[in-house]
Design a protein that fits this description.
alpha/beta; 2-enoyl-CoA Hydratase, Chain A, domain 1; 8 strands; 49% helix; 12% strand; globular; ECHD2 protein; Enoyl-CoA_hydra_C; ClpP/crotonase-like_dom_sf; Enoyl-CoA_hyd/isom_CS; lyase
Length: 222
């Protein structure tokens, strides 16, 4: 996906009705020794980092349970859409653990430090409506009979992104992600570097031409 230039948006969904991702298999985990657990969690953290580093926008379609590592997977995505009946939580402390695949870092960046600490300390599960009210998800929708309401809303969101200039969207994502990790002056410099890369693109020229000619632009990602 990282190197496929035809890919504009990636949507993460589950094929299991009622479950987005239920997290680690604790029965499997119980059979591991301490070294194996550390290796497993390191690989999991690396996977989440790979997802977060995808150059195109990513959307998690949460139509059911997203618990522990399942919520960490959703947090590694750029955008999240949830069914109102979905259940989300970093429940690790209820099992004698703490989030180890990015949850302690991505949740506070998403909802703020106070709420993140409350959710992690208590291991509480929240529904889609609560998640939307605290900014954990971008949109919440009532679940449908097929059980894929969040996925359908995620597709609608993806279709809003698709017509936009692909390279500009990628640079926008990069500027936001890198800028959030530094002070604002450094962030402005990062934005400037991303903008400079976008200036010579054919898509920028096409966008200007389409505006002048009062027609829809036809972007090619170049």
């Amino acid at each position: 996906l990282r190197f496929d230039e035809k890919v504009r948006v990636v949507v993460f969904k589950s094929e299991v009705k009622g479950v987005f991702c239920a997290g680690a298999d604790l029965k499997e985990r119980a059979k591991m020794d301490d070294a194996e657990v550390a290796h497993f969690v390191k690989r999991l953290r690396n996977l989440m980092d790979e997802i977060a580093a995808l150059p195109v926008p990513t959307i998690a379609a949460i139509d059911g349970y997203a618990l522990g590592g399942g919520l960490e997977l959703a947090l590694a995505c750029d955008l999240r859409v949830a069914a109102s009946s979905a259940k989300m939580g970093l429940i690790e402390t209820t099992r004698g653990l703490l989030p180890g695949a990015g949850g302690t870092q991505r949740l506070p960046r998403c909802v703020g430090i106070g709420l993140a600490k409350e959710l992690i300390f208590t291991g509480r599960q929240i529904d889609g409506q609560e998640a939307c009210s605290m900014g954990l998800v971008n949109h919440t929708v009532p679940q449908n009979n097929e059980g894929d309401a969040a996925y359908q809303r995620a597709l609608t969101l993806a279709k809003e992104i698709l017509p936009q200039a692909p390279f500009a969207v990628k640079m926008g994502k990069l500027a936001i992600n890198r800028g959030m990790e530094v002070d604002i002056a450094s962030g402005m410099a990062i934005e400037g570097m991303c903008y400079a890369q976008n200036i010579p693109t054919r898509d920028r020229q096409e966008g200007m031409a389409a505006f002048r000619e009062k027609r829809p632009p036809h972007f090619i990602g170049k």
